[in-house]
């Protein structure tokens, strides 16, 4: 957990409108709009977008699945049954359970929000999947206000999915195979296919867009049989299934530790899950939060206690393979993709290296802790290949000296490369062999993203989102506004056309963002000047390629 302190460390007001011929039109007051969809009738509310004051309708808190409570806790999601009457969908509903002391949210949380400029036509659909290390986050417009994408003519949707122990517990057998949160996402995507036309969206023009854990989720959807046919393009910001943190490696042990903490002492999966279903959600969340921290801190570079897993093979499995092997060999849904990283993903948090430094002693004491968790070697502390990889990494980043004495710059560079740049680049290399792929590095340092006036250079994790979603900041600089317009235009272009620069556009400095193909990575450096370049972070990426070649044993799951 501490390792990702830096990762996840916008009031809303609108004028009203009325509806005329399926279009929003301005009126002095907010207006409620009723709409019939597949499962029943819902009421939305009108608004106008930030900056351009374009009218839209928001339908918030639409249930897409039955509440996963009581006997449905730890079970695959069940699509929402039709209802009688009219549901009030004018406000955000509860987020999924998260946090501790106090616990926030509710188990009844599987809701989707849809925003549209028009209830007629067939507009492109942008579906955002939130991040939050698989333990936090929600679909609220307070966090992800879609105004700028609405200004570009998109229909925008976002949804909650189960988190933490409720969404990612696994007994690594058929009792609870795992990936419940990802299976929630599948049901939400199926709901979009059935219903988005009622909102003026085109179900055959759906782009999945996510950040961090949400981006990693999308990468898994590309590899899941359950998700086939549910989307046509993907945008992945700062995360893919190849990230070390994107795969939980010891879920069964974690599940039984939680049970033991709550007095359920057993080695039988059925007894464990039966017992956990009878625990209050508050007690379960508090206990799982404690175990989460303990497990994660056992090796802070090894990934999270809760996250996607490789399920045992069974009907209804979401994911059962080795991700890097599947992408490299073309065993995934081949759709156009846009993906990338920020220039220094570990730069976000204040004194991140100072926080992490408290836990760096283990890296000096252990001869294997810096070695990537996915080298596929025995995990013993004196395993020769892991020892060799550890020593080489320590010398490359820390001059073979004590890591606890390393500078903030070196620690942040290591974390950024190890946890984000390397796996995202490898994903681009793998999928570009089979499908159109655009890669970027977001390097623009501005006040809107929070990257001014700090010691660490570069753009940190999540900071690009400030240039995509509505901001509540006032007095935004001209440079920041221009960068926001450029980012939204490129992301929207890709969602509409599968190409971020389909025409010469003065707003985009008339550039042509070329797709990448193979090992020689073409990418767009997004800064005040937009520049197409080759091979981002080339020295360190070549170094890691050699680490895997010399010390790894393919096929790999992550990279």
From TrEMBL:
Residues 35-543 form the Carboxylesterase type B domain. GO terms for molecular function: carboxylic ester hydrolase activity. Keywords: Disulfide bond, Glycoprotein, Hydrolase, Serine esterase, Signal. Its EC number is 3.1.1.-. The keyword Disulfide bond applies. It is an enzyme of class 3 (hydrolase). Residues 1-18 form the signal peptide. It comes from the Eukaryota. PANTHER family: CARBOXYLIC ESTER HYDROLASE. Belongs to the type-B carboxylesterase/lipase family. This is Carboxylic ester hydrolase. It comes from Leptinotarsa decemlineata. The lineage of its organism: Eukaryota, Metazoa, Ecdysozoa, Arthropoda, Hexapoda.
């Amino acid at each position: 957990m501490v390792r990702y302190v830096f990762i996840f460390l916008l009031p809303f007001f609108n004028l009203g409108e009325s509806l005329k011929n399926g279009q929003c039109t301005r009126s002095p007051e907010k207006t409620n709009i009723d709409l019939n969809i597949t499962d029943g009738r819902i009421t939305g509310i009108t608004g106008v977008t930030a900056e351009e004051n374009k009218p839209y309708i928001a339908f918030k808190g639409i249930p897409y699945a039955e509440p996963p409570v009581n006997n449905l806790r730890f079970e695959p999601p069940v699509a929402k049954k039709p209802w009688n009457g009219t549901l009030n969908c004018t406000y955000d509903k509860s987020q999924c359970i998260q946090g501790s002391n106090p616990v926030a949210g509710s188990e009844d949380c599987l809701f989707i929000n849809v925003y549209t400029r028009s209830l007629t036509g067939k507009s492109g659909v942008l579906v955002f999947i939130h991040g939050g290390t698989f333990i936090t986050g929600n679909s609220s417009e307070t966090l992800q206000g879609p105004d700028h994408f609405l200004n570009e003519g998109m229909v925008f949707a976002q949804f909650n999915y189960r988190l933490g122990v409720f969404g990612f517990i696994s007994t690594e057998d058929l009792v609870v195979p795992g990936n419940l949160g990802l299976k929630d996402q599948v049901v939400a995507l199926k709901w979009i296919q059935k219903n988005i036309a009622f909102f003026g969206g085109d179900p055959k023009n759906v782009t999945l867009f996510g950040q961090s854990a949400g981006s990693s989720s999308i990468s898994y959807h590309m590899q899941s049989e359950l998700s086939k046919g549910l989307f046509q393009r993907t945008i992945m910001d700062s995360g893919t299934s190849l990230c070390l943190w994107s795969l939980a490696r010891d879920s069964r042990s974690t599940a039984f530790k939680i049970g033991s903490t709550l007095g359920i002492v057993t080695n039988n999966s059925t007894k464990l899950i039966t017992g956990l279903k009878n625990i209050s959600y508050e007690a379960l969340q508090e206990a799982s939060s404690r175990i989460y921290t303990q497990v994660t801190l056992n090796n802070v570079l090894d990934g999270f206690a809760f996250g996607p897993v490789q399920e045992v093979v069974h009907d209804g499995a979401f994911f059962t393979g080795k991700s890097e092997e599947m992408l490299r060999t073309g065993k995934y849904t081949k759709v156009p993709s846009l993906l990338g990283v920020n220039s220094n993903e570990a730069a976000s948090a204040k004194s991140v290296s100072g926080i992490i430094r408290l836990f760096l002693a283990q890296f000096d004491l252990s001869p294997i802790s810096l070695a990537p968790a996915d080298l596929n070697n025995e995990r013993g502390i004196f395993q020769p290949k892991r020892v060799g990889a550890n020593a080489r990494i320590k010398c490359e980043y820390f001059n073979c000296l004590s890591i606890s004495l390393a500078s903030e710059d070196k620690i942040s560079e290591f974390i950024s490369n190890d946890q984000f740049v390397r796996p995202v680049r490898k994903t681009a290399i793998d999928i570009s062999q089979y499908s159109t792929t655009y890669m970027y590095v977001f390097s623009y340092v501005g006040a809107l993203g929070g990257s001014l006036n700090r010691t660490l250079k570069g753009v940190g994790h999540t900071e690009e989102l400030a240039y995509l979603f509505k901001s509540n900041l006032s007095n935004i600089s001209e440079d920041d506004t221009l960068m926001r317009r450029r980012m939204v235009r490129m992301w929207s272009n890709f969602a509409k056309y599968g190409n971020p620069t389909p025409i010469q556009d003065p707003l985009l400095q008339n550039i042509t963002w070329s797709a990448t193909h193979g090992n020689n990575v073409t990418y767009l450096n997004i800064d005040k000047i937009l520049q197409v370049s080759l091979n981002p972070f080339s020295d360190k990426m070549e170094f890691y390629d050699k680490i895997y070649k010399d010390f790894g044993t393919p096929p790999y799951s992550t990279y």
